[in-house]
């Protein structure tokens, strides 16, 4: 594993010039400020206009009462089941309380913790200590070069807080699945789902393009920092280009294609048969990203294009 040492950092001054900071106190102050603000803020209202206005209105096919029980206090057995399913070997938050400790509490301590959880849900207030976290910067697959933006922060939260969130997430996931809220657009975020289905669909799309000699454009996008404070100042847009290679396919010669597909929760695959259609799709997607302060990591975007070929006649 690559390690980084934050003994000195580069920072841009008011004129946009890079300044090397070596003073220990300044380095700590700037590092703290960077990781406090790197994700920006979502606590601001935005006018929803255009094509997304209807999408953000309450949907008539969804009964709002299905969510009424999410914030109910759990039963004692439900809470203990959440604790039992916590993963072992996970890093702890600032208090140092691990999942293993929660699993081995005495009966009295379990009841005290259960009472605390019920009160938190009833009052809708998290303890101040649970809002603190430990942030560890880890290296990205690129040289660090004293640039904090070349590191990825890992935030370690209190394990008891994560257990409470797991309880709410489990309830929400069951509601979404039982009521088919996400329709067919979500493959791996709900119980008993996986990435197998989108991988199969992708393989069949590629195979169909090969079998029928159709043009195919596939762009894989990866979400970068969500809620980036600079995204509104950027001019988003795409100028699609692709390096093409001519392949001669002769009669009687086996043409083998090896396709490797990896799927992640924050990946998006844009599929179409024309470059112009792909550019239009990306323009629409960018309006959604700007609305929700989502930044696409264009360094990780990958474009795969298949052009039509002509067979040589003997």
Layout of SSEs?
Elements lengths: L8 E4 L5 E4 L2 H14 L38 H9 L14 H5 L3 H17 L10 E6 L11 E6 L2 H20 L17 H16 L4 E11 L40 E6 L2 H17 L2 E3 L5 E5 L8
Antiparallel strand pairs: 1-2, 3-4, 5-6, 5-7, 5-8
Protein name: Reverse transcriptase domain-containing protein
Q: How would you describe what is shown here?
A:
It comes from Rhizophagus irregularis. This is Reverse transcriptase domain-containing protein. This protein is of the alpha+beta class. The chain has two domains: 9-178, no CATH class; 196-306, no CATH class. It contains seven helices and eight strands, in the order ββααααββααββαββ. The chain has helices at 24-37, 76-84, 99-103, 107-123, 159-178, 196-211, 275-291; strands at residues 9-12, 18-21, 134-139, 151-156, 216-226, 267-272, 294-296, 302-306. The strands form three sheets. Strands 5, 6, 7 and 8 form a four-stranded antiparallel beta sheet that branches. It has a two-stranded antiparallel ribbon with strand order 1-2. Strands 3-4 form a two-stranded antiparallel sheet. A hairpin with a 5-residue loop joins β1 and β2. α2 packs across α5. The chain starts with 8 loop residues before the first strand and ends in an 8-residue tail after the last strand. 5% of the residues are buried. The model is unreliable at 226-264 (pLDDT under 50).
Give the number of helices: 7
Low-confidence stretches: 226-264
State Rg.
25 Å
First-last Cα distance: 56 Å
Percent helix, as a range, is 25-40%
Taken from the alpha-carbon principal axes, the silhouette is: globular
- Mean pLDDT, to the nearest integer, reads 81
Provide the succession of SSEs. Answer: EEHHHHEEHHEEHEE
Question: Total number of β-strand segments?
Answer: 8
Strand content: 5-15%
| Largest sheet geometry | 4 strands, antiparallel
Structural class: alpha+beta
Number of domains: 2
Protein name: Reverse transcriptase domain-containing protein
Organism: Rhizophagus irregularis
């Amino acid at each position: 594993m690559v390690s980084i040492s934050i003994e000195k950092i580069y920072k841009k001054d008011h004129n946009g010039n890079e300044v090397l900071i070596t003073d220990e106190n300044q380095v700590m102050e700037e590092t703290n400020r960077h990781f406090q603000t790197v994700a920006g803020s979502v606590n601001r209202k935005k006018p929803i206009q255009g094509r997304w206005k209807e999408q953000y209105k309450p949907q008539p096919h969804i009964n709002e009462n299905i969510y009424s029980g999410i914030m109910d206090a759990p039963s004692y057995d439900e809470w203990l089941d959440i604790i039992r399913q916590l993963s072992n070997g996970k890093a702890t938050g600032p208090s140092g309380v691990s999942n293993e400790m929660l699993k081995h509490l005495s009966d009295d301590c379990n009841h005290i913790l259960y009472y605390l959880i019920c009160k938190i849900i009833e009052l809708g207030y998290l303890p101040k200590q649970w809002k603190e976290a430990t942030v560890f910067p880890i290296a990205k697959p690129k040289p660090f070069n004293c640039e904090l933006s070349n590191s990825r922060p890992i935030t370690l939260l209190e394990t008891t807080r994560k257990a409470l969130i797991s309880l709410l997430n489990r309830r929400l996931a069951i509601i979404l699945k039982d009521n088919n809220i996400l329709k067919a657009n979500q493959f791996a975020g709900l119980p008993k789902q996986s990435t197998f289905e989108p991988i199969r669909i992708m393989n069949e799309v590629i195979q169909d393009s090969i079998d029928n000699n159709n043009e195919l454009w596939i762009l894989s996008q990866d979400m970068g920092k969500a809620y980036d404070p600079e995204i509104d100042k950027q001019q988003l847009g795409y100028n699609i280009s692709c390096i093409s290679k001519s392949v001669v396919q002769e009669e009687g010669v086996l043409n083998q294609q090896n396709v490797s597909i990896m799927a992640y929760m924050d990946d998006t695959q844009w599929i179409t048969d024309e470059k112009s259609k792909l550019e239009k799709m990306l323009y629409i997607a960018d309006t959604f990203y700007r609305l929700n302060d989502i930044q696409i990591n264009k360094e990780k975007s990958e474009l795969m294009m298949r052009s039509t070929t002509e067979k040589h006649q003997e």
